Amino acid sequence: MHKQEQEAEKLVEAFLSGDEDALCKLVNLYKPMICAIKSRIYLKNLDDEDWYQEAMISCHEAIMAHDKNKGTFGTIYKNYFYNRIMTLLRFEMAVRRRIDRNMVPWTEDIDDLVQEPDNLYCTINEVGSKVCQKLTNVEMNAILVMLGKASVDDVLRDCNITLRQLNSARARARRKLYEILFST
C-alpha cells in the first residue's frame, strides 16, 4: 500500500473513532487532487473557502462510504469530490438559470456606461483599422469562415493552405481580436 494511502487509512480510522481534526488532515492530504480538479473546472460562484467546504463534505461522505475491500480511500474520495463538483456545475449550467449567468448587476451609475453614438462610431472605426493592420490575409479569411461569410473550401483553395493551417489561423485571429478588443 502506498504511504499516502496508509496515512489516509489511519486518518479515516481516527475520524471514525471521534477525532474531528482527522477530517481536516485528510482534506489537506489530498489537497493536490483538489487543486487539480479546481484548475480544470470553473465555477462562477465558488471561492476558495467554498471549494474547501465542498472538499470537506465530500471527504466526510467518502469516509462514511469507504470499505477497505472495495478500493482505496483516495479513489473513493476523488470520485465523491469530482461528482459533487460536477453536480454543482450542472446546476450552474442548467437552462433555467442561464439568464442568471448573463445578468449584469444594476448600478446607480448607469449613465456612465452609455456613450454618445459619435464616440462609439469612432471607437468601432479605430478597432476596425487595428484589425486590418494586425491580421494577415489568411487570418482575415479565417474570420470570414467563423462568421459564415466564406466557406472553408473556398478559403482553402483561394489561400492555397491546408485545413490545419486554417485552424491555426483561426486561433491566431481569435487571440489577436481578443487583444485588440480588450486592450482599447
TrEMBL record:
Protein name per its UniProtKB record: DNA-directed RNA polymerase sigma factor
Biological process (GO), any one: DNA-templated transcription initiation
Keywords of the record: DNA-directed RNA polymerase, Transcription
Domain of life: Bacteria
Keyword Amino-acid biosynthesis: no
GO molecular function, one term: DNA-binding transcription factor activity
InterPro entries for the chain: RNA_pol_sigma_r2
UniProt xrefs under Gene3D superfamilies: 1.10.1740.10
GO cellular component, one term: DNA-directed RNA polymerase complex
Organism: Lactobacillus pasteurii DSM 23907 = CRBIP 24.76
